[in-house]
Write a structure and sequence with these properties.
By secondary structure, this protein is an all-alpha fold. It has a domain of 40 residues. Helices cover 63% and strands 0% of the residues. The protein has three helices and no strands. The longest helix is centred in the N-terminal third of the chain and has 23 residues.
């Protein structure tokens, strides 16, 4: 764990990049949801993995606070 402390100063930047990529994925997934095939069939996308990844990202973002609450 001591080797990960080297990354602690970069944590806000890494979280900003992660949240930005998650927002981009949200935008692209929502944009794709309105498209239909040439035969007129529209496929309903599944957002389950998207929301699971968002929950994990939120958990990782709050991890220092959670650890302080548990200790």
């Amino acid at each position: 764990m001591a080797s990960l402390q080297v990354l602690e100063p970069f944590r806000p930047y890494l979280l900003a990049i992660a949240w930005g990529l998650w927002a981009l994925a949200f935008y692209r997934e929502r944009q794709k949801a309105g498209t239909c095939g040439v035969d007129g069939t529209c496929e309903k996308p599944s957002y389950r993995m998207f929301w699971i990844s968002g929950a994990l990202l939120l958990l990782i973002s709050a991890s220092p606070w959670l650890v302080n609450q548990l200790v």
